[in-house]
Specification:
single chain, 340 residues, alpha/beta, Rossmann fold, four-stranded parallel beta sheet, three-stranded parallel beta sheet
Length: 340
């Protein structure tokens, strides 16, 4: 769900899977073949359920990350939907990616512009073809499309949500998507809301199966590698970030979480030197690698001495859907240095 560029998990710039033609853009060997994995995660159909009656009332746990005090908060919620939604609009990229896999696509009637932007979305080309596309603030376009359900997320603009409520547009607000486990929960919840429980369960099964496949292909290490993601301005993601989940999926330590960071923290070079990670990941397209390698302060750090500063496209870092598995697969190829 990458709607607002306000935190690490949603500030992204897209680079295609081929990574361009520069030396920093060489695509590494990965544990799983990316093209096949992407296709498998993009279209999923399970065995239809017999009992899928409407109206239905859904009870669920709504989670939200409170950035003021770095806590994950929960509350019980109830949502009643009168009939099976046939005109659905997702207001965030990750929701679009989930719906694209489990929902008949004729039921998706419009898309946020970020879902059609290669800087933000794995499905940009497909979404552009299907359309129509609306600006994130164009509430009138959303209302005018006459949806019977709009999916928003906890960081969607409050003003946008309020205007939808004023127009009596049914709205389902989704919560935290920071880990692969939270994404699986949201997939199942979305499937329940739209009446596609079987497809949602099938998608979660694919994620579980392919994650096992990925882990079995990882090299055996005497001790896990310590990996740090370094973003512009010296910002480091911690426990509640997508990057931490990616690290857990491929058996490495996220140094930010190891050092007690919860969401995001800015550090200086002296602190980075003290932490001394094995590998530093930086966003592709930036000049951060050059800055780190040329810094006299960091000259004795092992990642600098071994030139273990590696690029990763931001779109993979910010995945908040089933495509997080693509991100883990690619990060494994980078971290384990073409060991596959």
């Amino acid at each position: 769900m990458r709607l607002c560029a306000v935190i690490f998990v949603i500030i992204v710039f897209f680079v295609t899977p081929l990574w361009g033609t520069s030396t920093e853009g060489i695509f590494p060997k990965t544990p799983l073949e990316e093209k096949a994995l992407r296709a498998e995660l993009s279209w999923v159909r399970g065995k239809s359920l017999m009992d899928n009656a409407y109206p239905k009332t859904i009870h669920y746990i709504y989670e939200v990350l409170n950035f003021r005090n770095d806590t994950l908060e929960q509350e019980e919620r109830t949502f009643t939907i009168k009939s099976k939604p046939l005109r659905i609009i997702p207001h965030a990229v990750g929701v679009t990616e989930i719906l694209w896999a489990i929902c008949p696509r004729e039921r998706l009637i419009a898309f946020n512009e970020l879902a059609a932007d290669q800087k933000f979305s794995f499905l940009a080309n497909e979404v552009k073809k299907q359309g129509p596309i609306f600006n994130a603030q164009q509430v009138e376009c959303v209302v005018g499309a006459k949806p019977d359900l709009v999916f928003t997320v906890f960081y969607s603009d409050p003003g946008f949500k309020e205007k939808l409520k004023q127009a009596n547009v049914p709205l389902f607000d989704l919560g935290y998507f920071g880990t692969i486990e939270s994404i699986k929960k949201q997939i199942l919840l979305i499937g329940k809301v739209i009446g596609e429980e079987a497809n949602a369960e099938a998608l979660v099964k694919i994620i579980d199966t392919r994650l096992i496949d990925l882990k079995t292909k990882l090299p055996k290490m005497l001790k896990p590698l310590r990996v740090l993601y370094y973003d512009k301005g010296g910002y480091i993601p911690g426990k509640f970030s997508n990057f931490n989940s990616l690290c857990e999926m491929i058996g490495v330590i996220n140094v930010g979480a190891e050092q007690g960071i919860k969401s995001l923290k800015q550090i200086d070079f002296e602190t980075l030197l003290t932490w001394d990670p094995d590998i530093i990941i930086v966003p592709q397209g930036s000049n951060l690698k050059e800055q780190l390698l040329k810094s006299p302060v960091l000259a004795t750090m092992q990642a600098i001495k071994k030139e273990s500063v590696r690029y990763l496209p931001h779109v993979y870092l910010a995945g908040e859907s089933q495509f997080m598995l693509l991100s883990a697969n690619l990060l494994a190829g980078i971290v384990y240095n073409n060991a596959f």
